[in-house]
Write a structure and sequence with these properties.
252 residues, alpha/beta, Rossmann fold, 7-stranded parallel sheet, globular, binds NADP nicotinamide-adenine-dinucleotide phosphate
Length: 252
């Protein structure tokens, strides 16, 4: 197994990609801490992992609460004696162009899509360094490498967090702490509901996807989970500062 005896902490893991990544890492032997602002959703994911015979625990944490996020990461490291993988995944998407997005919505996007990753990564450094390294995966998006029409808050923050990931990778390579950004394209999860409404409904969204994505379909959460396991494990041991784009060719 690729992650035997490793400890992994995942934010926003109560649904979608975070949940699939948590399950995939547990199947590879990791003890996974499934965290989400929705404690019930996180617990449901952890119960599925346990029912499959793998190890998971739950922590309810909202990533915009700096103290709670830092405390949760520190407590996992203290209680298990290590932290090998941080998948800082929770994010939000506020649709609209410059005149439609309020300053408060821009601040909210920054708080979750950039600031919270900074706080989580900062808390992970000491326990990872103490054990000779680790892997920090920060979820950006293919919107971090291309411009999305009428998505100023989302595309701006996803570009920013990619820059931050590369900066941290350069600073912590000597500590064997790897930082990579996960950049999914359209993955069929509840996350796209706002964009679906913006597009005029599910049919319109599917038309858009089959016209604009070379592979003409949504990706699945399991296709992203494979990337998460790759970045978390030694399969990517000499890879840091990378943006792993998994998007059916949308950003080509
Ligand atoms: P999802 O299925 O909606 O799951 C996101 C989870 O994060 C939800 O349980 C959500 O809770 C939780 N969450 C939201 N804000 C949080 C906070 N402040 N603190 C803790 N948990 C929070 O979404 P997903 O598809 O996994 O996508 C989430 C991440 O992937 C985002 O960073 C997004 O930018 C990125 N991404 C997704 C896609 C895609 O097509 N799905 C594409 C590119 C990038 P609530 O349900 O209560 O909001």
């Amino acid at each position: 197994m690729l992650l035997e005896n490793k400890v992994a902490f995942v934010t926003g893991a109560g649904s979608g990609i975070g949940a699939a990544g948590a399950r995939a890492m547990a199947r590879e032997g990791a003890h996974v801490f499934v965290t989400d602002r929705d404690g019930v959703a996180a617990r449901t994911v952890a119960e599925v992992i346990s029912s499959e015979g793998f190890r998971a625990d739950t922590i309810e944490v909202d990533v915009t609460d700096d103290e709670a996020l830092g405390r949760a990461i520190a407590s996992v490291a203290q209680n298990t004696g290590r932290l090998d993988v941080l998948h800082s995944h929770a994010g939000i998407q506020i649709e609209g162009k410059l005149e439609q997005v309020t300053v408060a919505e821009m601040d909210a996007s920054w708080a979750v899509n950039v600031r919270a990753h900074f706080v989580a990564a900062q808390a992970a450094i000491a326990p990872m360094r103490a054990h000779g390294g680790g892997s920090i995966i920060i979820t950006s998006s293919n919107s971090g490498v291309q411009i999305d029409r009428e998505m100023i808050a989302y595309a701006t923050t996803k570009h920013a967090v990619l820059a931050m990931t590369r900066q941290m990778a350069a600073d912590y390579g000597k500590d064997n702490i790897r930082f990579n950004a996960l950049c999914p394209g359209f993955i069929d999860t509840p996350f796209n509901r706002g964009f679906e409404t913006q597009m005029g409904g599910r049919d319109k969204l599917e038309d858009y996807i089959s016209e604009t994505i070379p592979m003409r379909r949504f990706g699945t959460v399991d296709e992203i989970a494979d990337g998460i396991v790759f970045l978390a494990s030694d399969r990517s041991s000499f890879m840091t500062g990378h943006a792993l784009i998994i998007d059916g060719g949308e950003s080509i």
